[in-house]
Amino acid sequence: MKAVRYLALSLAAVLFLIPFYLVLRNGLATEQEITAPAWTFWPSEIHWENFAALFSNPAVPMVRSMVNSLVVAVLQTAGQLLLCGLAGYGLARIPYRYSNFVLYLVIATLMIPAAVTFVPTFVVVSTLGWVSDLRGLVIPGLFSGFTTFLFRQYFLNFPRELEEAARIDGLGHWGTYWRVVVPNSKGFFAALGVIAFVTSWNQFLWPLVIAQDQDSWTVQVALSTFLTSQSIDVTQLFLAAAVSITPLVVVFVALQRFLVRGVTETGIKD
Hints:
It contains 15 helices and no strands. The model is unreliable at 266-270 (pLDDT under 50). Helix 1 (2-27) packs across helix 14, helix 3 (49-55) packs across helix 14 (234-244) and helix 11 runs antiparallel to helix 15 (246-264). The protein has 270 residues and is an all-alpha fold. The protein has helices spanning 2-27, 31-35, 49-55, 62-93, 99-109, 114-127, 134-138, 145-156, 160-168, 173-181, 186-201, 205-210, 219-224, 234-244, 246-264.
């Protein structure tokens, strides 16, 4: 039975890694090898110079775009963990007459299609002069109703005994949150942090509209420039895709143990 389980996991791992293999294989090959009718497992000659061509391409500021995406993703992740965490804790633990009404409003935002709020948000950002500015990319994504709802549901199940002990020591809601709740919820914070980081990194439509200047492009906008109605730079498109997913792989590998643990995190340490 154990052999069957390992076999199934191995097959799943291979299927999961196939897209990464294809992206890297095509990025290090020539366009002729990519489009050749006869498939080869690996390029006959690895073209490392494709990296130099990618990062020296004056039409696509790849390094700048990667830095912009990293800044946006880090700031939005930190903002969501801070703001949504506080909001979720307040909705779960602080008695308030209209707390349920506020919760329903937060949930209602999840039912509104993004296309409905896209134009009003752009008008606000444009009025503030944040077009082609990192503020226009970061600030609209600092709060998430979905993340707030997840935090609220998690804090409802957080052991009250720990909070009551903190209250006996003289801590209020603020001190209890930062000194007791957050340190005992690192797994859940890390899990939501990974989700928020990946979501922010993969954003395309909003950065495409806001980042009208090359200096404010994110990596997803930079990738789209390799694919136009006139031509497709296949090699650089694949290589740029391989480069762009590197931060996501690093974040996932570093925090993967929290993804499963964060779902069942109770706040009680062994």
